[in-house]
Amino acid sequence: MKSPIKIVWRKEMKDALRDKRSVMAAMSYAFFGPLLMAVAFYVLISQLTDTSDVKIDIEGGEYAPAFVQHLQSRGVVQRDEPWPAGRQPITLEIAGDWDENIATAQPAKVTLTADFSSQKQRTDIRRVESAVEAYSTQLTYIRLQMRGIDPRITQGIDLVKHDTATKGSKAAILMGSVLIFILLSVFFSGMNVAIDISAGERERNSLELLLSQPLTTSQLVWGKSLAASAFAMFGGMLSAILIPIIFKLLPLHEIGMSISLGWPMVLLIILLLVPLALLATALQLFVSFRAKSFKEAQTYISLLLMAPMLVVFGVEFARVKNQLLYYLPLTGQHQALLDIIKGEPLQWMAMLVSAIATFLVAVLLLKLISRMLSSEKVVFGL
Amino acid sequence: MIEVKSLQKSFGKVTALDGLTFSAPEGQITGLLGPNGAGKTTCLRTIYGLLKADSGEALIDGVDANKDPLTVRTKIGIFPDKFGLYERLTAREQITYFATLHGLEGKAAAQAVAEVIDRLDMNAIADRRATGFSQGQRMKVALAQAIVHRPQHLILDEPSRGLDVMSTRILRDLLRELRNQGTSILFSSHVMQEVAALCDQVVVIAAGKVAAQGTPDELCQQTGETALEEAFVKIIGTDEGIAA
């Protein structure tokens, strides 16, 4: 006789694959997530490597033609066209007493007016500042030399910067945020199916009959959760495969980064996601089998999704470092993925332990759900 | 044989079943008649093991659903209180799903499904998805799900709700045919005509107890009334919650 788990799984897969909403949900997050990241990085890279002139308003340029020419040579020029809507003008105002101050070796006043909190204009402002500072240094040198003093006297310390960041480690910071997409895609992709096969079953009034069939609740729950996990895995696989491809297309070398993720590593990432997909599904089923309708389940699950997001973002941004993280569900996969990206030696043992831990938690949750479905209180909402 | 022995069940302070005892033998249609809230659905759910009785037992061929639910469920066909269909599956797929859950496989399953589709005259809708099915069509699918594995016992909870005349006739013919094949059929209803037209035996339930039991004729005789409806009102003591 065929296993009831397989019968339920096949029926749920057939049902879910015909549901355009579920398929779209599984696809879209896995697909658009990496794509969104790609666009964001593309913009970031082009901003960082932008060498076109910075066009600003220069007022009082007629008082200091030599200064204006210096600015021009550094790529800071007078703006002719109006500022685009929503962008604060950057204005450099040269005081009328420029000549007098230069002649008497006083500080000449130049006012820079701009929105210093603006992310978009940060590089522009920075370039204006450094152009002005360079001119100021030149002036100082000339003034000192004219008085017969070695200009080096103004330099107390000569700070030499050695950037030890390798191309790989710079990339890791970038990839860290991308990893979050891979991890979360497992949680997002199976969500719709998970709701449909649990709360949906109750909403369309088919739960009672299904529970009265000759199969145990744990067979039912396993069949259903394997179907939803299949969708979760599909999403995880899609984003794991897409992300290295997208990064190959981005001009990362222009900002001094190199990311190479071979297919064996992609395969390893996919394997790491398998127990996580089961855990994600188990969590979602646990919540949405209690809900009375699709809507209610969606509300609960969107709250539930905050949990993995908080954990992953928390670890990522707080830069928590603890060996324990390698062994726990979710954080274990996160750390392993980070190591893979950074090209650091992999902790196979820790990977295995976290995979088993993840799997065990999922099994435990599924057991709980099976017991829940044997309880008349939960089934009939008494 | 379906046997119910002094079932007790309460939800909080509400007593739903209060020492209910009756039996539904093979080759008979037994009607559970009672006003709304009398405990009909609770009784049926206890028989197929979704609810646990506080005391007493419900047996199918001597097996208690609370102790061995899987054995009980292979022996019965259920037409539940609420029957939702899977909107994205065709009628044939839904029926096949339940057939396979009952252990039918491959060709045997396909044949059983084809037979039941023929019997219920639903070839026209068999390969359409359930979205847009009428109430009568939905009932047929639910009925087909209940009988596709040829159960020895059939339990139906208010099967004629919302059905038109034609669908009701199909249902009645089918139940009679199954009875003649030796199936024991237990169905609940609050519709007098249906019970009078169909049942070999009527069990009148009120407030979780058996108020009277017998053939429709016997019930009339017991109460000295000529119509079952009057007899029923006399037994219950009120005509509340009953449809003629």
TrEMBL record, chain A:
Pfam families: ABC2_membrane_2 (PF12679). GO terms for cellular component: plasma membrane. Keywords: Membrane, Transmembrane, Transmembrane helix. The chain crosses the membrane at residues 21-45, 171-195, 226-247, 267-287, 299-318, 348-369. The keyword Transmembrane applies. The keyword Membrane applies. One of its GO terms (molecular function) is ABC-type transporter activity. PANTHER family: ABC TRANSPORTER PERMEASE, ABC TRANSPORTER PERMEASE PROTEIN NATB. This is ABC transporter permease.
Automatic annotation (TrEMBL), chain B:
The keyword ATP-binding applies. One of its GO terms (molecular function) is ATP binding. CDD domains: ABC_NatA_sodium_exporter. Gene3D superfamilies: P-loop containing nucleotide triphosphate hydrolases. Residues 2-232 form the ABC transporter domain. Keywords: ATP-binding, Nodulation, Nucleotide-binding, Transport. Coiled coil: none annotated. It comes from the Bacteria. InterPro entries: AAA+_ATPase (IPR003593), ABC_transporter-like_ATP-bd (IPR003439), ABC_transporter-like_CS (IPR017871), ABC_transporter_ATP-binding (IPR050763), P-loop_NTPase (IPR027417). PANTHER family: ABC TRANSPORTER ATP-BINDING PROTEIN, ABC TRANSPORTER ATP-BINDING PROTEIN NATA. Belongs to the ABC transporter superfamily. This is ABC transporter. It comes from Pseudidiomarina insulisalsae. The lineage of its organism: Bacteria, Pseudomonadati, Pseudomonadota, Gammaproteobacteria, Alteromonadales.
